[in-house]
Structures are given as C-alpha cells and as structure tokens.
Amino acid sequence: MKRYIVTRFLTLAVLVSVGFATPTFAQTTDGAAQIQALLAQVKALQAQVAQLQGQPTNTNACLSLSYNLYADQEDASTNGEVTKLQQFLAQDSSIYPAGLVTGYFGPMTETAVQRWQARNGVVSSGSPDTTGYGYVGPKTRAAMSCGGSTAYQPNVNPPVITPTPTPPQDTNTVYFSSTFFDYGYTIGDPVSGTYSQQLIVTNGSKKDAHVKITVDNQPAWLNTSYNTNTLTINPGQPMGIGVSVNPIGLDAGTYKTEINISGDFTGSPKTIPVTLRIYEGATPVTQSLNITNPLDGHAWTVGDTQTFRWTTSGIASGAVGYIELVDSYGGVHRISNVPNTGSYTWTNVGTINGTTIPVTPPAGNYSVKIIMNNIGDIVGPLTIKEKQSQPIAIGATFSNPGFDGQYKKYILYLSGGTTANPVKWWTLNFTCPSNVPEVNAKVAGNVCDGQPYQLGNENTGTGNVDIPLNILYTDLNAADLKIHIKATGKDGGTMGEIDYVLPVHKG
Predict the structure, then answer these.
(1) Do 329 and 377 reside in the same domain of the chain?
(2) In sequence order, what are the residues at sequence separation of 6 or more whose Cβ sits closer than 8 angstroms to the Cβ of residue 79?
(3) Sheet-wide strand order for 332-339
(4) Which of 335, 354, 385 marks a domain boundary?
C-alpha cells in the first residue's frame, strides 16, 4: 500500500512539474537558475517513477552510429559500435531481455533491434534483406540518434515478440571466411575452377567446437556431397567446406540453395546462402558442310578425271579433312589430307594414292563422305563404272600347218584389241559346207552344229587370240568355211563384227 501511495505522489509531482515547466519568468540570472533547477527535479522524478514501474532509466535515450550494423558483425570491423548498440538496447529489458554486451551482432541482438524498430515506428515486419527489419541502416540510425521523425519512448504496450533463447554459456566462437557464395556462368563458356570454392570455418575458442553440415533438398547443380556426421574443430584449427557448382545444362536464370551449419557455437545455426546465376551466351556459330558434286545417282568412269565439290559454313578455310568412298562390301577408301578449298580433283577415278580401289571389279556403287573439322555430309550412290569400249578393226588371218591324214589343220588369228581398249570376248558363228562336216575349235568340239563358239580373253592384255582349227574334209573339191566374228568389250558393248571366209581344200 505504501508503494502505491508513493507512486501516485510521484506521478502527481511529475504532472505538476510538467504543467509548470514553461512558465514566464523575468529574464534575470536568478530566473534562469530557477528554470534549470526545476528541470533537474523533473528528470530525477522521472527516473524514480521509471524504477518504481519496472522501467529502465532512460539516461541515454539517443545513440549516434557511424556504421550500418547487421548480423555477424563485430566490434573489430565497426570501431566498437556493436557494443554501443547492445548497451543502448540493454537499457530496456523488454527490448533486449538478455542484455548481453559481447561486441558480436548475433540473433539476440537482431531480435532486439526488431523490437526497437517496431516500437518506434521504423519497421515491424519482413526481414533484414527485404524491409530492413533487424538491420540498423540509415533510417534506424536516424531514429536512434533522435534525429528522425520518432524518438526513443518508454515501453507502453510493447509488441509481443518471442525472444530468442539465450545460448548456453559453454558455446564456442567460430569464424566463417564467407557469409555467402555467388556464382555467375554464361552458357557456352568452359567450366573451370571458378565454380569450385571453399568456405573456411575457424574455431576461435579454447575448446573443441562441434558442427554439423546439412543442405535441405540439395539441388543437382550443387555438386558437393557433405558428411552429415558431427565434425570436431579443434581450437585454432581451420576446417574447409567445399562449395562446388555445375552450371552445365541449366537454363538461364537464378538458382538458390543454402548450406546450414549448426553446432555448439554462438550464432548457431549459421546459414550460408549459395546463388548460381546463369546468363544467356552468345549465339553459337553454326558449322555445316554440303556436298554439291557428286550427287545421288551420279556416275563416274574408271580412269577419268572428276572433281569433288562442297560448300561450308563456319569452318575455317585452313581446315584439313578427308574424302571417303564406302563400297558395297563395307570397305572404306579414304583420300587423306584434303584442304577445305571447296573442291578436290580426282585425276584417276578408281585410284587412291596410286592404289586401285580393291573391289573386283573396281566398278560399283559407293557412298561419298566429305569431312572437315569433324563436320561432314554424305551422298550416294555414286556409280563408278568401267571405261566404255571403243570400236576396233578386227583382223583375221590363218595359217596352214599341215594335214594329219584325217584333219586339215589351220590356225585362225584374231586381232584388234589394245591394252587400253581390250577385247573381253570373241564370239564366232561357223557356217560349214557339205564337204566339211566337222570343225573342231580348240576343245569346244564340233562347231558346225550352228551354235556360237565364245572365247573369253579377260586375262590377256589386249584380247587378241590364236584359235587352232581341226577341219574334217571329205572330198577334193574346194570349199569355203564362213565365219561370223564379233568382238565384245569389258563394258559389254560390241567393239566390232566381220564376216570372214576361210578357204578349205584337201591339198
């Protein structure tokens, strides 16, 4: 009851003092002294009222700061201003219940700043990064210095904010080499060590610190795998935590995740944001090659001179490639060291580096492939055919080596082929007179049966032949043995035809 009476009395005294705080006095030295005395009495009474009501004594209601202050800062980097801020906040236990003055801006200090901002109309929601809630920036510093639109006020109906539990007294102090990681990658660039960095955690205490590293819903682009066991950091010992990202295959945009480090240290858990920014790269250079000669269905002849032609885009003119012909047997025949000039002359179709394409016969169908700088085109079929046979003048002569008592023996000589234009086949049709019932040509038997006699000469250089004839002669009358002779070339074409008469007599 006594406390109630004193409170009422002091309140009344304050009200009375305030009511007469600005009376008109004569402008004398004594009047000024009286005013100062009254103001001192008012200030003393206010302090007594605050103590009786459980309020802190607001003897330092204004704070001047030179730095913007935020989480994880220390006195060493702020010229002692973290300590000044904590002392300022600790004046009101409802603002900063813990009242710890450590020189480190931790979670409890951040929560105290938020309470002060809300109570003084600076900001009351959001986060330090979005609205500045918990961040001592220019606006909050101005308010704390009493230079803003609001000044520090005693606690009247403070907002309900759940205080951060005071960390246990045996927590350690650890230091982090970085508070965030930010990577940038342009699509198309090579990936190098730039995308692999390290976070160093150092134990600044005199006893072991224990930490655990986790990443919730770890994205595929964060390459590093983390040991989920509790790790021990000895006093003064640094521990490296790798942070590696892989931007390959990602679309342009911003990708974010967080590395969480928790343990028995002040400020636990510590969140390290990781940001990967992917930028659109330059439009890649398109490389292409198109064959313009030969095209599908073209035909070249063995021994001729032909030209391969092609066009390119995005391939250097100094590039060197090759031309390949793939035959129907799967054999690959390569013309190497072909410069990217857009054309290559094949001076002897069917011959590569002095070697005839190993196909029997060399004529056939081929796929043509031209490659430059690993970029190429393929066409086909390209038909390579034998050189067309040219007409020849057939020569036919005979000799008469004798008579064996039954058969008259002759040798027929056929000529006209050359090495460049050889005869492949000779075809002979015999018309035998009545007194010549039988003509045996080599081993073909009797050729007087009206059937053509064909002699192949594909293994000789020119195709010219000598044909032994055994002629059965039945009387002494002379007779003419008529022979139709036809020469066929390697391409199957007729090179020439003649009718030849072989005079036969028994003498």
Answers:
(1) yes
(2) 66, 67
(3) 299-301, 375-385, 364-372, 320-327, 332-339
(4) 385
What is the spatial distance between Cα 80 and Cα 489, in angstroms, rounded to a whole number? 108
Closest CA to 411 of 402, 399, 403, 395: 399
Position 293: which residue type?
Answer: N
For residue 380, being part of any structural domain is answered with yes
> CA 242 to CA 293: how far, in whole Å?
57
Confidence band for 355, pLDDT divided at 50, 70 and 90 = low
- What is the percentage of the chain residues whose pLDDT exceeds 70? 77
Give the domain extent around 27.
2-52
User: Do 404 and 500 share a domain, yes or no?
Assistant: yes
Residues 488 and 470 occupy one common structural domain:
yes
Nearest-angstrom CA–CA distance, 333 and 317: 24
The answer to whether 96 touches 90, Cβ cutoff 8 Å, is yes
Supply the mean pLDDT for the chain: 77
Q: What is the largest CA-CA distance in the chain?
A: 185
Given a cut of 90, is residue 195 above it in pLDDT? no
**Is pTM beyond 0.85 here?**
no
Query: How far is 342 from 84, CA to CA, in rounded Å?
Result: 79
* 91 occurs within a structural domain: no
Same domain, 180 and 250: yes
Whether residue 334 sits in one domain with residue 261: no
Same domain, 374 and 401: no
DSSP 362: S
Q: What is the CATH number of the domain that holds 415?
A: 2.60.40.10
Does residue 143 fall inside a structural domain?
no
Q: Side by side, which strands form the sheet with 253-263? A: 181-186, 270-279, 253-263, 209-214, 231-233
425 three-class SS: strand
Residue 133 pLDDT greater than 90, yes or no:
yes
Q: What is the DSSP string of 194-255?
A: GGEEEEEEEE-SSS-EEEEEE-TT--TTB------S-EEE-TT-EEEEEEEB--TTPPSEEE
Asked if 181 and 199 count as a contact pair (C-beta separation under 8 A), the reply is yes
pLDDT (tens digit, 9 = 90+) per residue, 139-174?
999 999 986 444 444 343 434 444 444 444 456 888
Query: How many whole angstroms separate alpha carbon 105 and alpha carbon 73?
Result: 5
Does residue 220 sit in the same domain as residue 317?
no
Domain end call among 279, 309, 329:
279
Q: Are residues 275 and 292 in the same domain?
A: no
Neighbours of 420 (CB within 10 A): 10
Q: What is the pLDDT of residue 308?
A: 92
pLDDT in the model for residue 59: 40
Tally of domains in the chain:
4
Q: What is the mean pLDDT of residues 41-45?
A: 53
Note whether residue 352 is domain-resident.
yes
